[in-house]
What we know:
The protein is an all-alpha fold. 72% of the residues lie in helices and 0% in strands. It has 13 helices and no strands. It has helices spanning 29-47, 53-75, 78-112, 118-122, 138-169, 172-187, 190-204, 211-235, 239-247, 252-280, 284-289, 308-318, 321-352. The radius of gyration is 30 Å and the shape is flat. 31% of the residues are buried.
Amino acid sequence: MSNAVMEKPPVAVPPPGGTLKQPRLPRWAPVGLALLSAGAGAGAGLAFGLASRIQWGLIAAIVYVVATYALTTAVEGRRQAKDRLATSLIWVSFLVAVLPLASLIWETIARGTKVLDGYFLTHSMSGVITLQPGGGIYHAIIGTVEQVGIATLIAAPIGLLTAIYLVEYGRGRLATAVTFFVDVMTGIPSIVAGLFVLSFWIIILDFGYSGFAGAMALAILMMPIVVRSTEEMLKLVPNELREASLALGVPKWRTILKVVLPTAIGGITTGVMLAVARIAGETAPILLLVFGAQSINNNPFEGAQSSLPYYVYEQWANGNEASYDRAWAAALVLIAFVMILNLVARGIARWKAPKTGR
């Protein structure tokens, strides 16, 4: 056995009066740099006579990213500087995406609340002169609810059954063809769906303008969304559940009905609700097919009918101050309608989500 003494690894000794701690920027540095960058952006905008606040914000964002990288490189080194550069770009991109949305919502609320009251929600535009204040959107709300409801009744079952076929039964050329056409339908413009229903339902079959015609166009736009969302939810169901049910002698159709669908029902419902929210604001097919109406029409299968997107377009096209106020108020109601649908979808998803605790 060797008598050599094992050498101990060298121990790092801090320099006299110093430490091994990596230099760091203070915690308030990002906030301070953001304030300085905002001041630099405003100063540059005033100096160069830039009237748009958006240009000021872009200058401030560029100054913030460059200053953060330069200061971090000088204090913490290039590696930390790259990390902070990526973080700064993410935050700047987030603000660039959020600020226009927040501005849109703020502008809609500020202008829409001028005429939004109980009278506006419970009256139509029948007998109202467009140049004068008054009138409401009750007829448009009725039209939107009926058209979106009929579209959901058409698209949801077809989309659900199509997704079940693709996941559980789809093999060969037919499944490939169905998948291809679903992908094509996902990308078609809404005006194309409106033109298709217009040419087939109204021109060829000689049916009149109605809410049902608009609902069919909305159903065409809704179906591929339901198919795709339902298909993804069904794929998330573990195959072990299917195999266990089939091993007990349960038929495949009953396995799908009693095992697969209840497991994925939360995600399926969320997908359907998001598809409903997607079509609620469509304007192009409604302009072609429902023709618009100033009075209340509770029958979606006969006669012209209005809707919230059509009402907004119609009032804005009138070109006077009273119509502008009504258009902003209707836009606010439409945003609230879509937001409620999204909240309902999230609530259903959380309610139906699998419980992970004991």
